[in-house]
Amino acid sequence: MKVLALWAISVIAAAATPTIPSTPDLGKAEARCRPGENGPSLLLDIVGLKDREGRLKAEVYPANDQDFLQDDNILISQGKIFRRVEVPVGQGSTQNGYTAQICVRVPGPGRYAVSVLHDRDGNRKFGLSVDGVGFGGNPKLGMGKPKAASATLVVGTGPTRERIIMNYRRGLLSFGPVKAL
Asked: Residue 98: what pLDDT?
């Protein structure tokens, strides 16, 4: 239980509770894909959603441990890459849970660390017992945040399609997909 609490504090501190007052619109203007746009972007297929409640928040970070899940205000003030797209969960479903799709524009081809939050209660923060989380590369989640290298996706010159598997709390000490995907 103590280890899980430490992991939760790490995730919440890094991803949801900034040390500087957060501005929810940071990173959004550059992030949302426009219809018919063919430049570098991530087309994320979000699979294994627990339900259709709340919103999804996809965020793109520099692909290094120092900046991955860093506060958006800090990244932007330092001129670093940060993108955020928030959408309602939507209505898609499969036999393995609900699905959604998010498109995020990136500044150019390259490597980016990606996180997705299923904010089921809509409070704009990660709730350990309520919300789900997924990362680029679909790393197995342990007791701490994943390394940036395991959550990194490579984007080409056009739209790059990737699959993100959502994970939710299962029992006291584990996170994983709702169903086997």
From this structure: 81
Strands, E assignment, 15-71: 41-49, 55-62
Contact status, residue 135 vs residue 146, Cβ threshold 8 Å: yes
- The pLDDT, as a whole number, for residue 172 is 66
pLDDT of residue 92: 61
Between the two ends of the chain, the Cα-to-Cα distance in Å is: 27
Q: CA–CA separation, 20 vs 136, rounded Å?
A: 26
* Weakly modelled stretches of the chain, pLDDT under 50: 1-22
- List the one residue out of 45, 159, 54 whose CA is nearest residue 92: 45
> Residue 91's pLDDT is what?
63
* Contact (Cβ atoms closer than 8 angstroms) between residue 81 and residue 64: no
Q: What are the C-alpha distances in Å from 98 to residues 7, 25, 90?
A: 26, 27, 9
Enter the tokens of residue 168: 């939710």
Compute the distance between CA of residue 111 and CA of residue 14 in angstroms, rounded to an integer: 20
* Alpha carbons 14 and 36: distance in angstroms, whole number: 34
pLDDT of residue 25: 56
Q: What is the dihedral of CA 152, 157, 158, 163, to 10 degrees?
A: -20
Beta bridge partners, 94, equal 97
Q: How far apart are alpha carbons 177 and 19 in whole angstroms?
A: 30
Other C-beta atoms closer than 10 Å to the C-beta of 121 total 12
